[in-house]
Amino acid sequence: MINYHKIPYIKLAPEQLEKEIERNGTFYANVAVWTLLFSLPLFWVLDLLFSKQQWVNYMFLRVVCFGVSYFIFWFGNKSKWNYLVHLNLVVGINLALASFSCGILPISESLPYFMIASVMVLLLNTTIFWRPIYSMMHVGGTYVIIILLYSLTGREDGYAGLVRNGGGAYFLISAFSCLIAHNRYLIVKKEIQKNLIIEESNKRLLEQNELINDQHQEIDQANKRLKQLNDYRQNTLNIMIHDLKNFIGSNEISLDLINRTSANLTVDQKEILSYISMGNDKLHYLSQKLADSAGADSSKVAFNIEVFDVVKEVEKAAVGLIDAASIKQVSLQLNLLPTALNVSLDKVFVQHILFKLLSNIIRFVQNGSAISIHVSQTDNHCVIEYLNKATPIGIHNLNAYFNKLATPNSHNAVTNQSGLGFAVAKNMVDEIGGELSYNSNETFGNYFKIKFKLA
Question: Residue 371 carries which DSSP code?
Fold first, then answer.
């Protein structure tokens, strides 16, 4: 069977995978710790029902266990410990207390405690996300505590009584829960890998989308250049054909005048006259074919300046990138002026700038965030702003991205490299006389601004 979810050409970096595993592990660790902490009232009810004589002592032990567990959890998060450190400590303390209760109580009262301990271990191993060796270590530790306490209390019925009164069920369920923890670790790790691959694939799709737009822009520029060359050629041909026709017409008039007095011409003169007439006919034929064989070229194509509404172009660029934004679950919020803002620029260049900048902003902002697009008028200038109130890209990263283009003509060599779309957009803005600025920090998020002079 073909595995449609596997993308063999994408190789994940080990540090990227470890970082994502740690992030998911931290989330599941918080869930597991709070589950253990909030299970305290359940054990109070159990103590009241089955250990009425000792329930006060047990309550004191459980309150101490709760306090120590919460302090470890709080201090570990504050000190930024690895989640496995405080998680193992909290789980170890709570399972040690549960196994202590099961091993110290009389055999007639131990069954409910074994059942609750079984549920606790099963729930823990179906919630938590860590390597299964940790589950085996904690479960094995509970076995040692239960068997040791059971031996020290000198029970008359031996280990058979332990198995009959709930111990056997606990050993079986807890061992089975370690298998669940193993399977869960493999499944969640596979899901993390798949999500990272999907995210990397989406990033590549955005890059391909940007590359396609670059190619469209190059095609538009080539078409513009060809049109200018064609206009130049046509004008040149018109001048040349006009001059040739005038020359041919003058020759025909002269030939007609000579032919009228042909009676006075000698045979040799008449033969020369026929050669001249034949050459004039050839010139006439060549003048008709000149347009098909002429060509011209230009070393540099000037901007095709025209007056257009930049607000419509901003909206068009946003609409064209809706699919790209949805891949990263990024929402685009348009705040456009109801009136037109006319600029006198190269329309194709402006379209490419708006598409290039917005596509790179979408690529680098945080997943699930929003990009607010504003168009306003300030001091006879059109101002286009992009705001993203999410995790900052970082001003150092943006400086590196926007300054990667060392030379304006190196575009074709760098389009496949990450982050260079920002540099391409900035270079094009500078070429047509605009201004592009940016910022990224914790206060303002990610901010980009383009200014064009109004027509």
Answer: E
Provide the 10 A C-beta neighbour count for residue 314: 25
Other beta carbons within 10 Å of 254: 12
Greatest mean pLDDT range, 134-143, 242-251, 288-297: 134-143
What is the four-CA torsion angle of 203, 208, 212, 215, rounded to 10 degrees? Answer: 110
CATH of 303-453 among 3.20.20.150, 3.40.50.300, 3.30.565.10, 1.20.120.450: 3.30.565.10
Q: Which pLDDT value is given to residue 451?
A: 92
DSSP 338: S
**Torsion (CA) 359, 363, 364, 369 in degrees, nearest 10:** 100
How far, in Å, CA of 348 to CA of 227, rounded? 14
Q: Alpha-carbon distance 262 to 269, whole Å?
A: 9
Count CB-CB contacts under 10 A for residue 127: 15
Instruction: Tell me the per-residue pLDDT of 313-342, one tens digit each, with 9 for 90 and over.
Output: 999 888 888 888 888 888 899 988 888 889
Residue 119: Cβ-neighbour burial (10 angstroms; 0-12, 13-18, 19+): middle
C-alpha–C-alpha distance, residues 185 and 178, integer Å:
11
What is the spatial distance between Cα 299 and Cα 309, in angstroms, rounded to a whole number?
Answer: 30
Beta bridge partners of 452: 382
Q: For 7, what's the count of Cα atoms within 13 Å in the CB-facing half-sphere?
A: 15
Q: How far is CA 368 from the centre of its chain?
A: 10
Residue 208 confidence (pLDDT) above 70: yes
Tokens representing 216 are 């469209």
Q: What is the pLDDT of residue 239?
A: 67
Name the residue with tokens 């170890």.
Answer: 92
DSSP string, 155-173: -TTHHHHHIIIIIHHHHHH
The tokens of 119 are what?
């549920």
Helix ranges, 267-309 (H): 267-293
Angle between helices 55-78 and 14-38 (to 10 degrees): 150
